[in-house]
Amino acid sequence: MTQDILTISPGSRFRAAMMLAVVADALQIVVFPFFIEGAFSPADDILDLGVGALMVQLLGWHWEFLPSFLAKLVPGVDLIPFWTMAVANVYRKSKRIAVSAEESREQHPALRD
User: Fold this and answer.
1) Residue 76 and residue 97: Cα distance in Å, rounded?
2) What does the alpha-carbon distance between residue 2 and residue 106 come to, in Å, rounded to a whole number?
3) Are 83 and 55 a contacting pair, CB within 8 Å?
4) What is the pTM of this model?
5) What is the rounded CA–CA span in Å between residue 17 and residue 90?
6) Closest-CA residue to 55 (of 40, 43, 69)
7) Rg from Cα positions in the chain
8) Does residue 84 contact residue 22 with C-beta atoms inside 8 Å?
9) How would DSSP label each residue in 51-71?
10) Tens digits of per-residue pLDDT, 68-113?
11) For residue 94, what are the contacts with CB-CB under 8 A and spacing of at least 6?
12) Each residue of 48-61: pLDDT tens digit?
């Protein structure tokens, strides 16, 4: 018995996470009357729990997701696209880490025989 594992490239993961974040934030802004209660809205809580779980699944755990989730508990704060900002910040940090790793590799090439 073999297991077929679907592997998604990091670029595709970030694109999927960004699309998910934009859709979740748009839902909370456009469908605002349903989510006005903040922490007291079960639909809002379910949406945020689901989005948070999918973000961790797609991108791994990042501290940027915690303030995004907690801010959604305050009524009226759903008008700020916290999920989109969190994914953009994770993407920015990952690019900065990749660039510094590449620069480090160029500055210290491996010794050859």
Assistant:
1) 35
2) 40
3) yes
4) 0.71
5) 10
6) 69
7) 18
8) yes
9) HHHHHHHHH---TTHHHHHHH
10) 878 877 777 777 889 999 999 998 888 887 777 776 766 766 544 4
11) 10, 14
12) 889 999 999 999 98
